[in-house]
Design brief:
There is one protein chain. It is built from four helices and no strands. The protein is mainly α. The longest helix is centred in the middle third of the chain and has 15 residues. It is globular and about 50 Å long. The N and C termini lie far apart (69 Å).
Length: 92
Amino acid sequence: MTNAATSLPSYKEVYKRIRGAGIPAALIRKAFLPSWWEKDVEQDPGALQEAYLEIAAKLGISYSNLIDKDKPLNLSAGVPQVAFKTGSKNKG
């Protein structure tokens, strides 16, 4: 039986994915990391999983989208799509 926490990607891998999606390092540290985050908790699978859950929620994406290193990180998944009327029907 495999423990799900042992198969988590490292923080460096997740950080690299978020940076690759266009979010600057300073913003990741300031807005997306949990307030309790310390460098030494990277080795604790439970703390790492809790941090990933919080990061995913703040990014507005699913937890699985954040940790699945085989799929591209889709930050627009949590953003609702808005369609505006652009037709010229009501020009009078």
